[in-house]
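Quick one:
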Amino acid sequence: MTWNSTMSSGYSSLEEDSEEYFFTARTSFFKKPSGKPTECKDVEKERELRTQLSREEIRQKVDLYNSVTKDHLKMTLSPSGVYTGFVKVQLELRRPVTVRGGRGGAAGGGGSAGEEAFYLPRGATNTLHISSSNTVRQVIIALLNKFTVADNPAKYALYKRYRREEQVYVCKLAEGEHPLFLRLVAGPDTDTLSFVLREQQTGEVMWDAFSIPELRNFLRILEKEEQEQLESITRRYDNYRQRLQEALRAARGPS
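Output:
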């Protein structure tokens, strides 16, 4: 499997050689992780659908997809039955990532030399060239490598955003699902289906999978967020206090 990318290209390649809803409210670190049966069912359902499609049906779907796509990002079907194509992934990361190649270590001693915390552009969309055999986990790793992110891939999750009966839902994808197959079945319209990269919900993160430097870096980021929240609250109440004092002076009149 290879992938080629640059920070400025907005495009990278990942080709192989051969219902849980997400709520955007900030979650607590003490929230118990939810179980995995839903994800297993999603993977089994996708696998069953993929195995039910014959090679001729896949060819027909690829031809139909290519006939209606409007951005020239077409799919290509090989004689082996594996097809390649493009998926667009929107970045919705709320916290900074650890980027390799920085000028120095992260503040507070939480990072390695040559790494630094960096906010990726929120809402930016990146295009990946992948194959039908590539899984969600491989797509996440490719995205992180595209931006030279040193963080553990377990920190992130890929979600699908889809529309059903005029309602928009966002559902976490299991690591074993295949994004290009989902793209093929849904068609090229991103209003029907799109992909989003987010941090794992806090209660779902497997903290044992992270190294001690990574955990220290998480603590440093949380301490920074806590300080920012405290400063914001202090400014708000200072503003209230100032307005009350002005109202009292106005009520008393000139002395």
